[in-house]
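sorry to bug you again but im stuck and you know this stuff better than me. theres a chain ive been looking at and ive put its sequence and its fold in C-alpha cell form underneath. id like you to explain what the C-alpha cell line says about the fold, in plain words if possible. anything you notice is useful, everything is just below.
___
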Amino acid sequence: MLRTVKPKNARSKRALEAREPKEVEGPRTALFVKGTHTGDVVNNAMKDLMALKRPDAIAFSKKNPVHPFDDAASLEFWAQKNDASMFLIGQSTKKRPNGLVFARMFDYKVLDMCEVGVENFVGMGSFKGPKSTPGHTPALHFASDLFDTHPRLAHLKSLLLSFFAAPSVDALHLPGLEHVISVSLGPTPLSTSTTPEDDVAHLPKVHLRTYAISQTPSGTRTPLITLRPMGPHMDLTLRRAVPPSSNPHLLNLAMKRPKLVKKEVEKGLGKKRKNVEVDEMGDVRGRIHVGAQELGALKGKRVKALRDGEEESEEGESDGEEERPQRKRRR
C-alpha cells in the first residue's frame, strides 16, 4: 500500500483534498489493464469501450501478470495511485478465451467483480457515419425484467451503470444526448433440470449494442429521434463473479450516505425545511407566521393632512347639533 504523505506546499495539499471523499462524487475513473495473454478481440473491445468512457479513462500500455480473482493486491495499489474506482481487465486463456473482468472499488478496495466472455464482436470501424463526442454520457437501456429479478444479471446491470455513470443532473439537454447503449437478452437455453442461480451455463447471452442518436426537426417541441448503429456490438456470456455481499462490512460502508450540510439542505438536496424556499436567483426566502395583532389601540403621529380630513368629517356629522361658541384667539 502507498504510504501516507503530508503535503509540503499548497499545490500538493489541493491534490490530496481533491482525492478526499465528497458528498457528491464526480464521474468514476476507469483503468484499462491488459493481462499477460490478450487477443485481437479483447484488444479491440477494450479500445472501443475506452472510447465510450473517455475522458475518464486511463489505459496501461504494458501487459501485466494480473489475476483479480486470486490476488487483488495489484488492483488496490493501482486504484490508490491513480485515484480510480473502476477496472476493466482483459485476459484470454485456453480455458476462458476473450474474457473481460469488470471490477468496482470502494476506499481503494475491491467491492465486487464480474467476468464476461466476448463473442460476435463488431467494432466501431465497421460502421460508417459520425461517432459520439468524447465526454458525453450515454443513455443506458436494459430491455428485460431479468435485469431486476435475477441476481447475476442485476449484478451485471449495476456494474454497467457504475462504469458509464455520470454526475446526477436536474434536467436533460436533448442536443447533449448523442448515443445510447442498449442491453438486451438472447433466448434462454433449454435445460431438462432445475438449475441453481449460480449456474451461468443456462443463462441467456447479453447483447450489448451501441447506437448514435440523430435528431431532426419534427415541427413540434420534441425532435424526431433516429438511431444508427455506431458500435461496438458484442455478445457477453456470464462467467465468474464476486458479489458485493461477499464483504458485508465494506458494502455497508459503500451504501452509507453522508449527512448534507445546511447549505445543501436549503438548496433542496436534503430534507426540506418548512417555510423555506429558494427562488430562481438562488436566494433563500423564508415565511414567518405571526398571530393576530390588535391595531385599534395603536397610537401614532397624525399628519396635518389627515387631521384636516377628520375635521371635515366631524362637521358633516354634527349638522343637526347646535353650534358651539367660538373662542376668541389671543393676539
